[in-house]
Each structure stands twice: as structure tokens, then as C-alpha cells.
Amino acid sequence: MNVKGKGKTLIIIIMLLVCLPVVAVAITAISRSIALTASARENALIETNMVISDCDVSNTDMTMGTVLAQFNIDNLPGDLLGTGAVFTDTPLCTAPTAASASEITLPAGETVYILEYSEGFYRIVTPDGAEGWVTVGDIDTGGVPIGMDELPEMTEETEPTETTTTASTTTRTTKKGETTKSTTTAPTTAVRPEDFPVNGSPYFVYVEKGSHTITFYAKDERGKYTRVVRTYLTATGRTSGLTPVGLFSLGSKEEWHRWGTNSYSPFATSYKSGLFFHGPLYTSTSFGALKENSVAAIGTNASSGCMRTSVQAAYFLYRFCPAGTYVKIVNGSPLGRGAGRPSVASQYIDPRTGETPVIGVSIAPQAASLEIGGSIALNVEIHPHVATEKACVWSSSDTNVARVDDNGMVTAVGNGVAVIRCTTVDGNFTAQCTVTVGETTTESTTTETTTESTETTESTTSTESTTETTTSTETTTSTTTTTSTAAPSEPSQPPASEPAQ
């Protein structure tokens, strides 16, 4: 019995010796996990491209298509001065004169590489190799006068200046007569644009998280990125670890990036896996569908790592900074200064056309009863209210019953029912009013109710996700049956708890 007991004891000892190292490793791992701070965890997740809740979504199934595939530094000519895009269909000239126009026409939106400036003309080459001259006025350069001596006109931007913080000591006397000295401020090392790394891109992108600014530098005559051409305000990560610091380069570009249900951003350009520079949020891929409260977040710590900036800034980076352009992100430096905040109205404007598109139209009243010879003025509202083209075309389904003029004034001419329609010139959106003339009809009520629905989209693919809830309830009551073929009306504003991109 004693031998058997000693055998069992020996077995137990051996098992403990085998298990102890495993237990020790597990305890060490748990301890390290507990020791990590919240900030360290965020940084670890970012560095390994894992998902943090409410982070930017980078799901290839959710993009609106990558564009400008050839627009990268590897395809740029060596003697490049800058980049541009053709405003409208433009003939390519063989010399810097309008009389030398060739049979080649550059289509609107074509990317061009600017090689030379001469007396109001740019010598350009396209990604496909077509080379020639075009007038300066036909090329969009984002407002940068490439090859010219004058400085660009600054609009929302403020040019940053280099400063140096010097050491200082402050003496203070207390009420008791005691003299104290404040802590000496250490000198701040200046960031020198002359030291920025150089490659084939015409621009260098410099982001300072402390001042929430994006500054674009162009090359000087020495080929160094020292010439400030644009500075814009931007939102950065809600916490310091969400927007990484360091040197990056621009990657893929998308005209519209989809974050989730009814949430899109224009001109998204990646700078790190799952992180983008992009414009504000919209409920559709139309600049007329702006979520206005997303503009207010620009210039604050509001995103989940992305740079949410103005449409104008996002477009400049998307259109004129090729893939491979360097991006330097710092926490703070003497180069940083504030930039003007973009207005809400400016974010409705498509920078490619300078116009705000129509997204819907509504009419009031939607039903009316008239006697022969009677009239009524119909009121029309174009959505959004800042739309550029507000013209519409009026029509009547039966001019023997009711007629309508160009201002929406309806006149009854005979018994019956007519549908008066208003159709927008921009987008062909339609709203209508049913007019009953002379006939006494039994009052009826038609109610149309869209069943309340809740859509929730959650994506956990990359570093910014969006969870958005949309509830739509619409009820229409009229004394006659009213059929509406109106296009989507202006979206309501999202709640204050809008997900951050």
C-alpha cells in the first residue's frame, strides 16, 4: 500500500512540474493585458489593423469604386511642375497659341501633368501620353498658379508660419510675501520644411493634430517642399491614439466612400490601411444631401482616425496629389496655425462644377378644389434650399380642366380632375397637385403610411465603422386621392449621436 501511495504522489508531482510553466505563462499574459492602458490598447489595435468600435470602414464591398488608377508618382514625368484636370472639352494645341489647335480634344475631367508655363498656356502631357499646349483657363489646378510667380489667393486657408518657443522663467509673489518661480519651458525644436523627404509628387501633405490643420507644400526652385499653397481645417481622432503619427504615403482614391446605410463621404484618399482623408457626411452620393452636423465636427477631435475635412480640401488632395505623395502627421509643431472653418453652405457645392445639385422637390397644397374660373397659386420648394438650378417646368394632365402658367398659377377652365405637375430642370424630380373643378365629390380620405423600419449597419472590417439607424414614417392626408411621383425629398438631419468618420 505504501508503494502504491508513493507512486501516486510521484505522479502528482510530475503533473505539477509539467503544468506549472503553462500556468506561469498564462498568468504573465493576463498581467500584461491588465497592465495595458486604454490608450496603449487603442494604439495596439491600430498598428495591427484590428477594429475599434466606431472606426472608419474600409470594406471593398462598400466602396463606390476606386478611380484615378494611373494617378501615382510612378507614372509621373520627371520634369513635372504640377498636376491639373481639364474643366471642359478642350482642344490640344501644338504650340502656345490658340491658332495651333490640333484635332485632339481632351475630355472634361481628364488628368493632365503640367510640364511648362508660357504666356497664358500650359504645356501638358496626359497619362496616355498625349502632349501639347492648353490655355491656363482650361485647366483646374485647385487654385494654385503653377509655374507663375504670384501667390495663390487664400480663401478658407491661413498660411502657417514657422516660430520657435524659447525658454522662459516667470517669478510670482504670493500674498504671504513668498517668491516662487514657475517651471522653465524647454525650447521647441522647429520643424523645417527643407528637411521634408522628396519624391516625384508635386506636393507634400503636412498634418498637425494640435491645430487640426492640413497644409499642402509645393516644391521651390531647389526641388524642396517649402512653398505653402493651401491650409485647411480637419477633424482628427477622438483620442490621441486613433490618428497615428509618422510618415505615410497616399494610396487608393474613391470618388465616394460608403460608411454604412445612408452615409457617404466624397473624395476619400487612403493614407494608411482603413484610414482616409475625406469630406463631410452625406445621405447619398449627391452634394445636395449633406448631413450638416458633420461639418461642425471639422476642426475638432471627432473622428476615429480619419481626417474628416472640407469638400474643398478633400478634393484638392484627391484630384491633385497622386498616390505615393508623402503625408507627415505630427502631434504639434511650430509650423501649425489655425485655418478658417468651412461654412455649411460651401459643403453643398460640388467642387468639380461649382454647383449644388437638386435632390428633390415638394409642392403645396397637394390637392385643391376650384370652381370654373377660379385659380390658386401652388407653392414649390426645391431641395436643398441652396441648390444652384431652381427652375422647374409646369404641366397639366388635362388642359380642358385646369391650366397652369410658368409661375405655378392654376386656373380652372372646365369640370373634371387634372393633375398639375412640377418637374425640376436639374434632375427631373417631380411633385404634383390634384385639382378637382366644379364637380361635387364625396369626401374621402386617403392615408399612405410607410411602415416604420429600422436599418442598422455595422461593419467590423477595418478601422472606422458606422452604426446608423434610419427611421422613416410618412403620412399624407387629402380630400381626394393624391398620387405622388416626387423624387426623394431633402433628408432630415441625423441625430446628435452621429457616428464619427
Give an account of the 3D structure.
The chain is mainly beta. It is built from 4 helices and 32 strands. The protein has helices spanning 2-35, 38-47, 293-296, 311-320, and strands spanning 82-86, 90-93, 101-106, 111-118, 121-125, 131-135, 139-140, 171-173, 179-181, 203-208, 213-219, 225-237, 246-249, 253-260, 263-272, 275-278, 301-303, 307-309, 326-330, 360-364, 367-370, 375-377, 379-383, 392-396, 402-404, 409-412, 416-424, 430-437, 448-449, 455-456, 469-470, 475-476. Strands 10, 11, 12, 13, 14, 15, 16, 17, 18 and 19 form a 10-stranded mixed sheet that branches. The radius of gyration is 31 Å and the shape is flat. The termini are far apart. The relative contact order is 0.13. Residues 29-66, 151-175, 179-188 and 441-499 have low confidence and may be disordered.
Main attributes of the structure:
mainly beta, 501 residues, five-stranded antiparallel beta sheet, 32% strand, disordered C terminus, ten-stranded mixed beta sheet, flat, single chain
Topology:
Elements: H1 2-35, H2 38-47, E1 82-86, E2 90-93, E3 101-106, E4 111-118, E5 121-125, E6 131-135, E7 139-140, E8 171-173, E9 179-181, E10 203-208, E11 213-219, E12 225-237, E13 246-249, E14 253-260, E15 263-272, E16 275-278, H3 293-296, E17 301-303, E18 307-309, H4 311-320, E19 326-330, E20 360-364, E21 367-370, E22 375-377, E23 379-383, E24 392-396, E25 402-404, E26 409-412, E27 416-424, E28 430-437, E29 448-449, E30 455-456, E31 469-470, E32 475-476
Parallel strand pairs: 10-19, 12-17, 16-18, 21-28
Antiparallel strand pairs: 1-4, 1-7, 2-3, 4-5, 5-6, 8-9, 10-11, 11-12, 12-18, 13-19, 14-15, 15-16, 20-23, 22-26, 24-27, 25-26, 27-28, 29-32, 30-31
